[in-house]
Amino acid sequence: MGDTNKHIWTRRDFLLGVGATTATALSSCSITGNTGAKGLTEEALAVKPVVRSQDLEKPDITVGYVPVNDCAPFAIAWKKGFFRKYGLNVRLNREASWATSRDGLIFGRLDASPVVSGSVTNARIGAEGARHAPLCAAMTIHHHGNAMTMNKAMWDFGLRPWYEYQQKYGDGALEAFGKDFRNYFDQQPPERKVWAVVLSSAIYEYFVRYLSAAAGVDPLKEFRVIIVPPPQMVTNVRIGAMQAYMVAEPWNTRAIKGNEGIGFTFAQGKEIWLGHPDRLLGVMESFIVKYPKTYRSLVKAMIEACQYCSKPENRKEVAELITDRSFTGAKPKKKGAPLTKFTGPGILGNYNYGGFDGKDRAVKAADTTIFYDFPDNVPHEPGEHSTFLWRSRSIWLMTQAARWGQIHSFPQNAEKLAEKGWRTDLYREIAAEMGIKCPQDDYKVEPAEVFIDKKRFDPSDPVGYLKSFEIRANAPTRFFMS
Fold first, then answer.
1. Summary mean pLDDT of the chain
2. Nearest to residue 417, comparing CAs of 228, 171, 135?
3. b/e map 324-357, b = 16+ CB within 10 Å
4. Is the peptide bond preceding residue 250 cis, with omega within 30 degrees of 0?
5. Nearest 5 degrees, angle CA 59-CA 90-CA 29?
6. 220: Cα separation from own chain's centroid
7. C-alpha distance across the termini of the chain, in Å
8. Cβ neighbours of residue 35 under 8 Å, at least 6 residues apart?
9. pTM higher than 0.85 for the full model?
10. With 0-12 CB in 10 A as exposed, 13-18 as middle and 19+ as buried, what is 286?
């Protein structure tokens, strides 16, 4: 193992580490000054509105975003004038973390903001680690675009990217990975058994636990899960505060290309569940009730922005735009390096898993981040686009909250909660006004082949699905906070 992982922590080391992490967070999140894109671009000013601001109940709104790749539709809606097109005067506000993005909605600081896919569900069911609040979402911002990073010590032990296990072991890949994963953790002291995710209701936490359990390692007993804001992930691995993390890009690529020797990508989220939703456009239920015209304008602007981000010919421009300090600030410091060195892999689809043996692990794929159009390899229904929400996926998130002890049992009124939180009905109405076709059903079965453990999800029997897992919590467990 590297020197970082042999390090014995003293109080002084801890304080220095916290200081370094805090400094990185303050720098990356631009807490002082420039907290969001300001004013209107020339392109936006040239756009002729199709909706008059005076016809909206609340044309001046504040919209949050977090400095990860999926802020792209917000950046594009601002730059290209999609907000202006629909009569909105939007102030974009850069959020320090997914917790502040969610809480900004709950406490009224933000009118709308992206939230992790489990936030709406967990706020509705009052899951551990989530504030109980009537959050809503009527569209998905993107699918995929995230990954799991492991540190160099895990590489040195013999762990490799998931696709290499598949290439080497075929149908026995999960068992082989589980053996390596188990052997690694068996040799670690408690302080070196730490995974980080961005929020307790993020699908990332569920993926980390899902993968571990599928491999035969009980995540409730074998390691801790802590909460760390995206821009702090790399620094925390560097100082030895954690061994692995799951986050949206570009913070996995930063561990490979920006900090050589820090880590490698074990798997993209799409390898845990192909086609999974990631971020939703969150608002409070009261916003929809009080400002229905404003809300419709916002969703329309964001759908058009997602359509723009989805087109192959626009992706380079999108990847370049979000390197701006107002968005991710992920610009390479090395002279001559491509501007999209960090943001490009997730947006353009030339994803590099990294590694420490000099091998090229760049993989080109059309489904690395999905903003609107689904590539052919991702199962989808006729007329379905990635901005559409399936309420059945809200049910899946509830099964995971129950599985990992965030709630005592699966909610008896799950369908009602899904109906209130995931506003598929509103999306369908808004899409129709835009001439966009979408599925007429709210629920669908997720086929076995899309999950890493080949376990089919039928939303008509969520309790049976939950009980089919051998590794699960029988009661709420403590969630370790950073």
1. 90
2. 135
3. eebbbbbebeeeeeeebbbbbbbbbbebbbbbee
4. yes
5. 150
6. 22
7. 24
8. 93, 94
9. yes
10. exposed
State pLDDT tens for residues 131-177: 789 999 999 999 999 999 999 999 999 999 999 999 999 999 999 99
Residue keyed to tokens 């980080």? 196
pLDDT at 14 over 90: no
- Distance between CA atoms of 450 and 44, rounded to whole angstroms? 40
For position 336, what pLDDT does the model report? 86
- Radius of gyration, alpha carbons of the chain: 21
Are 470 and 218 a contacting pair, CB within 8 Å? no
- Residue whose structure tokens are 């199709």: 50
pLDDT tens figures, 223-233 = 999 999 999 99
Write the CB contacts of 277 (distance below 8 Å, at least 6 apart in sequence): 117, 140, 143, 203, 386, 389, 390, 393
pLDDT digits (tens, 9 = 90+) for 34-61: 467 878 899 999 999 999 999 999 999 9
478 in Cβ contact with 200 (< 8 Å):
no
> What pLDDT does 19 receive?
43
The residue whose two tokens read 């993390």 is: 245
Residue 409, both tokens: 């049992």
Distance CA 310, CA 372 (A): 5
Look at residue 148 in the predicted model and tell me its pLDDT: 98
Residue type (1 letter), 465:
Y
